[in-house]
Please model this.
Amino acid sequence: MDGSKLKCGAVSLLKEIKNPISAARLVMDKSEHVYIIGQSAEDIARNNGLQTVPNSYFSTDHRLQQLNASKLAKKVVLDTDIGVGIFVYIYTYLICYFHIYTSL
Model:
């Protein structure tokens, strides 16, 4: 999002694009759209040279354990680490007030 220019870009349901934030930036900078999902988003990212990785790249032991715990408990298990909340707050502040973007 670039608040000074009233522009934004978003993607979802990507399976093989290593950096989805870069794909969202492409949507914002090089597209008339603000939100692209699935195969269309994958195609735009690939056609613009973004790096691809196998889908397994995004799986971590921690997340697999969390998924299994959720299935066993038959409820959603969420992260409650305060560090994550503080990071999101600071990141949002930087974007909104200083127009600073980064690929995480």
Summary: The radius of gyration is 16 Å. The mean pLDDT is 81.
